Amino acid sequence: MRALVFGAAGFVGQHLTEHLRECGDEVYLAGIRTSGSPVENEFSVDITDAAAVRGVVREVKPDAVYHLAGIAFVPEAESNFDRALSINVGGTAHIVRECHDLKSGVKFVFASSAEVYGAISARDLPLTEETVPRPKNNYSVSKQMAE
Questions:
Q1: Residue range 11-25: average pLDDT?
Q2: Which residues contact 67 (CB under 8 A, 6 or more apart)?
């Protein structure tokens, strides 16, 4: 399978790309590298740039897209909500739109956050598809909007 991972340089992204490679997938990385040298099949792309996202998706023509990119640090989203919306919501919209426009049946996997459920007590567990989201901060609001 040809997999495209947005946010591949992040914590989860690094583990996912390793797993996909071990499974024999052809893996392409997309994101903003903060350190180190670029590696094979890596694209530097800002997901808030629709044209850049379009270029990567159309070049790779993936069978599956894993979207892990975004602001993940609550205080960062609290200090700049406009930026959190641009990245977490707008960036997600760009990726989804390009996957749809491929018209190839590409599978899309989006990593959200349990933060969308707000404060959870033991009596609320386990969370299910019927659990009502109750975002409590800018980060969780942006992730809920992206969903």
A1: 95
A2: 6, 7, 92, 95, 108, 109, 110, 111
